[in-house]
Amino acid sequence: MIPVPILARLTLAAIALTVATGAAAQKTPTKEPAKTETAAPAPAAVEEKPTPYDQRLIRLSEILGSVHYLRNLCVKEPEDVWRRSMQDLIDKETATEVKRRERMTAAFNRGYRTFASVYTSCTGPAIVAEQRYRAEGATLASEIVARFGN
What predicted TM-score, i.e. pTM, was given to this entire model? Predict the structure, then answer.
């Protein structure tokens, strides 16, 4: 059974993947004040137990990396929405599980690099790929919530 906060995040990810294209294209980025990061104590080692939806989360991570690259390739002003969403998901889903965190991060980076190696400018196929990946991500997030939620 998935804890409620995970369900909320996945539901928000599904909604974001579904409606973000139009809003993100029109939105101008706001400058955030510089954040000073303090070293947080290392989390205690926790026995990592794979969840039944880990493979789906890995795929969702890869999709988010792909969408992050493709969106920034095709918009006038760079946006950080997809990377921040991924970071939030990683932070909340893998709080003390280092290996799961590494797998999700690697999947995000793999999705990003895959399209970075193919598209260097915004083209019709890049736009279609971004739309398809967003649709797949929304479907996947909805399926995770529906199948593994409370």
Answer: 0.69
pLDDT score recorded for residue 21? 41
- Give me the pLDDT at residue 77, please: 84
Task: Identify the residue whose tokens are 């990592």.
Answer: 48
For residue 118, the 8-state DSSP code is T
Per-residue pLDDT tens over the stretch 84-97: 989 998 988 888 88
Q: Which two tokens stand for residue 115?
A: 């399209």
Tokens (6 digits) for 82? 């997809």
C-alpha count within 13 angstroms, C-beta hemisphere, residue 80:
7
| Cβ-based neighbour number of residue 85 at 10 Å | 19
Evaluate whether 122 touches 73 at the Cβ level (below 8 Å).
yes
Please say whether the beta carbons of 104 and 61 come within 8 A.
yes
Place of tokens 């918009």: 75
Alpha-carbon distances, residue 73 vs 26, 62, 66, 85 (angstroms):
15, 17, 11, 18
Q: Give every CB contact of residue 75 below 8 A, 6+ residues apart in sequence.
A: 24, 25
